[in-house]
Amino acid sequence: MATATVAGGCFWCVEAAFKAVDGVEAVVSGYTGGNVESPTYEAVCSGDTGHVEAVRITYDPDRVTYEELLDVFFRIHDPTTEHRQGPDVGPQYRPVIFYHTEEQKRLAESFIEELEREDVFDDPIMTAVEPVEPFYPAEDEHQDYYEKHPENAYCVAHVAPKVETVREQSGSRG
Q: 46: Cβ–Cβ under 8 A, 6 or more apart, which residues?
């Protein structure tokens, strides 16, 4: 098993989308990249802790590659905004790839360079590539949120379309 950590807006969206990827064994919502030990949701939402809402992904590299995870990530978040993902605004929603190894760093930077070279997005990519930092799992009510609350208006409007995007790709769970 291998580990990847990404932040791309609300962790409910990112967690649910990655759970639909074949080869992903577990996804945990949490907080990383900040300056407070064991932050709470309320503290992170204040924007004062420096943390982002992120997910820690455990995956089988024999079934899904890191590059395939990056491809999913760039399909489910807007890499051209620095502190906004859809209706979610604030520094806790900045997009980041947290690399665990130098190889992940190289692959992430190369992936972004290729997207830029191909002009995939109209605006420059703002998604940062940073070394992994301590990861704090979010409170229980934030884990598996979409699975528990698929009828929630936010989930219907913002999470479900991202999950559908992943399911439409080959190699994803139905």
A: none
Residue 168: inside a domain, yes or no? no
CB count, 10 Å around CB of 155? Answer: 20
Q: Tens of pLDDT along 69-99?
A: 999 999 999 999 999 998 999 999 999 999 9
Q: Tell me which amino acid residue 48 is.
A: D
CATH of residue 121's domain is 3.30.1060.10
Cα–chain-centroid distance for residue 61? 18
**Domain region containing 65:** 2-161
Number of domains in the chain: 1
Answer whether residue 59 is part of any domain: yes
The residue with greater pLDDT, 135 or 172, is 135
Which residues, including other chains, have CB under 8 Å from residue 72's CB and lie 6 or more apart? 17, 18, 21, 166, 169
Please name the residue ranges forming H helices in 61-150: 66-76, 102-117, 145-148
Q: Which of 10, 13, 45, 155 is catalytic?
A: 10
List of residues 6+ apart from 168 with CB closer than 8 A: none
45 among known catalytic residues: no
139: DSSP letter: P
Query: Per DSSP, which regions of 42-152 are E strands?
Result: 52-59, 84-85, 88-89, 96-99, 128-131, 135-137
